[in-house]
Amino acid sequence: MPAPFHPDLLRTSLAPLADRQALSAQALDYQRSYGLDLRVQRWLGGFQAGGFELVGQVWLPEQPVATMFLLHGYYDHMGLYRHVIEWALAQGYAVISCDLPGHGLSSGERASIADFALYQQTLDALFEQALQLDLPRPWHLCGQSTGGAIAVDHLLHAGERSPVDGQVILLAPLVRPRAWHWSKLSYRVLRHFVNGIERQFSENSNDPAFLPFLQADPLQPRRLPTAWVGALMAWVKRIEAAPPSPRRPLIVQGEADGTVDWPYNLKVLKAKFADPQILMLPEARHHLANELPGTRQRYFDFIAQRLG
């Protein structure tokens, strides 16, 4: 479980991400808490996008051959992605990531967003940080769940303007969640009376240690804001109406995923992209970044074979 650290002290200690400032004592405590104190050059810093104060991190191996942009899922933050970061570093990739608005160390109402377009502004700002840091090409993009949704939106609407000249990896990507029709009905009723409901933690990994870890994590939001559901409803319409893309993303999907409506999502993604390469994992649940080691290795092997 995460060791004690002080998020407010950490935020006030941060220099701009592009300054490559040495890690403060607060930053070191934070990275140790989540196992992010990996044995490579690394730094932590701030940048701005869409009116938010965002916190990003970079891990840089000795001789990087490419860069992996990593986008976390809803309710998540960078501290939950150690396994993916370690794998990418082992491939020789630099890794750059940030906490999304309203998540982790970044500013904003917890787990809320007014418009999913703000996530695109965040991704564009992360690309700009990578340019300032001169991170090596090719640039790969990896997103889990809502992070996958952000990657999908980018591919469908950025087109040839996208700086992603490598592969796009979608782990249990969100198009719409499970029980979507019920969620929409609930939103239309509840939004007139409440601005959020209590979050229900679920068993979203086969790793028995993961749920207790989440429940003890001080950076986990405890409410589901109705504003986020409304923004998601508008975004789903935008994605369903988007023109198709010639890109061929890699998609990894667990068949025991009870969080997203994965049969519908795969149908949409197959229609939007040119023959995406899909790995189905019968036993895997939603949080693929924190699945059991054997499951992670299966999809890491699948990805590595297609990045080589």
From TrEMBL:
Pfam families given in the database record: Hydrolase_4
EC number: 3.1.1.-
Domain of life: Bacteria
Domain named Serine aminopeptidase S33: residues: 63-292
Gene3D superfamilies: alpha/beta hydrolase (3.40.50.1820)
Single Gene Ontology MF annotation: hydrolase activity
Record's keyword terms, sorted: Hydrolase
Keyword Hydrolase (UniProt): yes
Keyword Magnesium: no
UniProt xrefs under PANTHER family: PHOSPHOLIPASE-RELATED
Descriptive protein name: Phospholipase YtpA
Species: Pseudomonas reidholzensis
